[in-house]
């Protein structure tokens, strides 16, 4: 097995969806309270979501990374995230 070419190993990296948002002129605290936390709450309960991390900056930006279980269809995961984002916006 140790002599198998590298391309013979399956891709085991779990699918990840990243969300970026900007709230121009807002402080990190405002972005955290009115953008990041709202999105985080909306993303809870996504199918196969295993890990979520988020950060907010003083430049008015938020970044959220959603990691799904290995084997999750990345297209389905992205579509679910888009649907949840639309719900968060309303």
From TrEMBL:
Coiled coil: none annotated. InterPro entries: Acrflvin-R. SUPFAM superfamilies: Multidrug efflux transporter AcrB pore domain, PN1, PN2, PC1 and PC2 subdomains. One of its GO terms (molecular function) is xenobiotic transmembrane transporter activity. One of its GO terms (cellular component) is plasma membrane. Gene3D superfamilies: Multidrug efflux transporter AcrB pore domain, Multidrug efflux transporter AcrB transmembrane domain. Signal peptide: none annotated. This is Hydrophobe/amphiphile efflux-1 HAE1.
């Amino acid at each position: 097995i140790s002599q198998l070419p590298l391309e013979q190993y399956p891709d085991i990296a779990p699918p990840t969806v990243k969300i970026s948002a900007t709230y121009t002129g807002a402080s990190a605290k405002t972005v955290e309270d009115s953008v990041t936390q709202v999105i985080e709450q909306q993303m809870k309960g996504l199918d196969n979501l295993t890990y979520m991390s988020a950060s907010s900056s003083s430049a008015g930006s938020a970044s959220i990374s959603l990691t799904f279980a290995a084997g999750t269809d990345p297209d389905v995961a992205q579509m679910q995230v888009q649907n949840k984002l639309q719900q968060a916006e309303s």
